């Protein structure tokens, strides 16, 4: 069953080009993780693989539109999904949002649906906070 989730929009106090570049190389995302999570994640420019609660999830970049969007899709996961990061320039920085499309069965959709939306919103809030010099507590403030 197809499910679509959209995060809230948040204004990140970083120019769109700079914010986009910080997400374009997936290997750089590993360095942003707290040390205790890094051993469970491997990545290169186009792909990232993580083991989470016994499940292996692997993603790859499916599309890059410079300074506008990055679309990531599953390469190995318990279900098919795609994530799109949107970077829209605004005078204050970047209007940032995330979309997720996933093939979830009825039970997974019922169990995870609200949590996915909540997690996306927290990720946007966390990025906005970091851009304003605040330090959210990972992962409790982000998921």
Explain what this protein looks like in three dimensions.
It contains four helices and eight strands. The protein is globular. By secondary structure, it is of the alpha+beta class. The model has no long low-confidence stretch (mean pLDDT 90). A hairpin with a 2-residue loop joins strand 7 and strand 8. Strands 1, 2, 3, 4, 5, 6, 7 and 8 form an eight-stranded antiparallel β-sheet that branches.
Structural class: alpha+beta
Number of strands: 8
Principal-axis shape equals globular
Unreliable stretches (pLDDT < 50, length at least 5) are none
The largest sheet, given as strand count, sense and whether it forms a barrel, is: 8 strands, antiparallel
Order of helices and strands: EEHHHEEEEEEH
N-to-C span: 24 Å
Portion of residues in beta strands equals 35-45%
Rg computed from alpha carbons, rounded to a whole number of angstroms: 15 Å
Mean pLDDT: 90
Indicate the percent of residues in helices: 25-40%
Helices, by number, come to: 4
